[in-house]
Amino acid sequence: MAITAAMVKELRDNTGAGMMDCKKALNQADGNMEKAIEELRKSGIAKAEKKSGRATKEGRIITSIKEGKGAIVEVLCETDFVATNEKFTAFIKDIAEKASEIDADGDVSETLNANEKETLVNMISTIGENMQLRRAKKWDTAGKVFSYLHMGGRIGVMVDVEGEADEAFLNDLCMHIAAFKPQYIAPEDVPADTIEKEKDIARAQMAGKPENIIDNIIKGKINKWYSEICLIRQPWIKDDKSCMEKIAPKATVKRFIRWEVGEEL
Questions:
Q1: Domains in the chain, ordered, with CATH?
Q2: Stretch 53-66: mean pLDDT, rounded?
Q3: Cα separation of 7 and 31, whole Å?
Q4: Chain Cα centroid distance, residue 256
Q5: Strand, helix or coil at 74?
Q6: Is 64's pLDDT higher than 60?
Q7: Residues near 122 by Cβ (< 8 Å), separated by ≥ 6?
């Protein structure tokens, strides 16, 4: 059967595959559109398997925020060129939307990877780079979920906040987290053994000082340390003489996420 340009265009529109791949698939299927799509899927899986060992160091983080729920997803690729590609952007937005619909609260990476395996393979075949759906989380909340993407999605932040928190404050909060990388929300969230290690370090630094002043010095050092690692104690992004617990005493951060593309897990 003669393969026409219109047939190639139709197959390309339906699958997103390259023009030459579409023409080859149609020839192999003797013009049968359904068989040609099947051929493309088979070749897509084969191509994806060949690319699966290639390093994925670029990518983007994307979020999907809806009333009472939010999702954050990181998808990696090989080059920054693809990370900013329109098809890749549309793909990861769709992935985040699907993550937000999963009936779970917490890590949904495994479920999302299982659900979107075929879609990912098709994208690898279409774009020509290895890709990895690296991690995904979805929250359900009675409070407010808000997000912020920095540097075109190289850094992504998502927060879950209860109490008095308007959009302007939530945006500042996300920007603060992106900039200052807090490890914990509040001092009471820091594990006891982590605190003890920090006290031991402080005590070792004061060898030779009188015992009656060591405890007070350690207390001061620990409080300063809290202001470095705890979100509510850190100097505020828009006023370094204040902190979150002072400027928003009626807002409670229940949880937060700060991800960077390709960071060590």
A1: 5-51 (1.10.8.10), 55-140 (3.30.479.20)
A2: 87
A3: 8
A4: 12
A5: strand
A6: yes
A7: 15, 16, 41, 44
User: Whole-angstrom Cα distance, residue 262 to residue 56?
Assistant: 8
Write the burial class of residue 168 (CB in 10 Å: 0-12 exposed, 13-18 middle, 19+ buried): exposed
- What's the DSSP call for residue 68? T
What counts of helices (H) and strands (E) characterise the chain? 11, 9
Chain segment 116-159, per-residue pLDDT in tens = 988 998 888 788 888 999 999 999 999 999 999 999 999 999 99
Tokens of 191: 């594990």
Contact 229, 202 (CB under 8 A): no
CB 71 within 8 A of CB 49: no
- Residue 152 is classified by DSSP as G
What is d(CA 119, CA 48) in angstroms, rounded to the nearest whole number?
11
